Amino acid sequence: MEWYRFIIQGRVQGVFYRKFVSQALMRKQFKGYIRNLPDGTVEVVAEIFDDDFDTVMQILKEGSPLSSVEGISHEIIDDAVFNTDGFEIRY
Questions:
Q1: Measured by CB atoms within 10 angstroms of the end CB, which terminus of the chain is less buried, N or C?
Q2: What is the pLDDT along the chain (91 residues), one digit of tens a residue?
């Protein structure tokens, strides 16, 4: 299990991207959060087991019906400690 930080680029703000992604990740029982960043991108931090990485990437790529994902970067967050017992939208 690792904590990952994703940055999603494209048309991802103002198109219900956070709502759709957070609901999909909640249904799959992931832990973490999603939030808009000032530069127009969206950040997702999630606890992922190796087998689930592709599932998370698919959810992030799909987004909402109005979104258009142009790129996703990711990194492993070493020694991450987050106080969450589910998946949440942060503002």
A1: C
A2: 899 999 999 999 999 999 999 999 999 999 999 999 999 999 999 999 989 999 999 999 999 999 999 999 999 998 767 777 789 999 8
Range of the domain at 37: 2-89
CA quadruple 44, 62, 16, 35: dihedral, nearest 10: 10
Q: Which residues carry out catalysis?
A: 18, 36
Give the count of domains, the chain: 1
- The CATH number of whichever domain residue 36 belongs to comes to 3.30.70.100
d(CA 82, CA 41): 21
CA distance 8 to 72: 5
- Token code pair at residue 88: 């949440």
5 neighbors 43 (Cβ within 8 angstroms): yes
Give a three-class secondary structure readout of 29-45. CCEEEEEECCCCCEEEE
pTM for the model stands at 0.94
